[in-house]
Amino acid sequence: MAAELIFRADLKLAKSTLEAIDAATLRQADDGLRPHLGASLIGKPCARALWYSFRWSTAPKHEPRILRLFLRGHREEDHLADLLRAAGVQVMQVDPSTGRQFQFGSGHFSGSMDGACVGLPDAPKTWHALEFKTHSAKSFKELTAKGVKEAKPEHWVQMQCYMAWAGLTSALYVAVCKDDDRLHLERGQHGAVWRRGGRRSSGRLAPDLQR
To answer: What local confidence, expressed as pLDDT, does residue 50 receive?
Structure first.
């Protein structure tokens, strides 16, 4: 124990460097405000929260650690897509008509799809909308036990939106556990077209105040 205490007392933490990194992370982050409701949000259960979010009632503020987690999630998309390609799956992450990420919707409600794929060993001829997500160990455990629809209903609704917009009948949810790199791949089928976005954003009053 004594040796451990002496060792820890000798640590020379680069505190100023860490503070500089945190400051740079905050400078590089955007304000998080969007002129539309995104497909990643529309599955939230509280309609009133969606209404206020669309109107920028509060500006989202995240500490540097959380912002870096967001960036890690974005970086994982390319890695997970490469894993699919290595398995023989054809993956498209860019809309060939625009040369940019797949964008759908307009006005109050829109979203950006991670990609599309075909050639899955489970369904070789079926095109799938792609959704990539990172999870903590706790979240990943619930996902594998319950499936995406029950464990992550917001993600399930997000896939429903992309399938409807892209005219696809199937989606592939690719999740990675950030703690140990376990993967969970789950296929989903298109259900009813999601029409909540326009209703939740266009009303003059918050949903529970509307008459």
So the answer is: 62
Higher-confidence residue of 134 and 40: namely 134
Architecture of the CATH domain 37-209: Alpha-Beta Complex (3.90)
Give just the sign of the alpha carbon dihedral 205, 108, 152, 65: negative
pLDDT above 80: residue 8: no
The encoded tokens of residue 39 equal 């497909």
**3-state secondary structure labels for all residues of 103-169:** EEEECCEEEEECEEEECECCECCCCEEEEEEEECHHHHHHHHHHCHHHHCHHHHHHHHHHHHHHCCC
d(CA 121, CA 9): 55
* Domain residue spans of the chain: 37-209
Are residues 109 and 201 in contact, defined by beta-carbon separation less than 8 angstroms?
yes
Q: What percent of the chain lies above the pLDDT cut of 90? A: 53
Q: Provide the CB-side half-sphere exposure for 1 (13 A, CA).
A: 0
Cα end-to-end span (Å), the chain: 68
Q: Which residue has the tokens 């070789």?
A: 124
Measured distance CA(197)–CA(75) in Å, rounded: 28
Q: How do residues 67-99 score in pLDDT, each as one tens digit? A: 898 888 889 999 999 999 999 999 999 999 999
Task: Please state, for a pLDDT cut of 70, what percent of the chain lies above it.
Answer: 71
Q: Tell me how far the alpha carbon of residue 44 is from its chain's centroid.
A: 13
For residue 80, the SS3 value is: helix
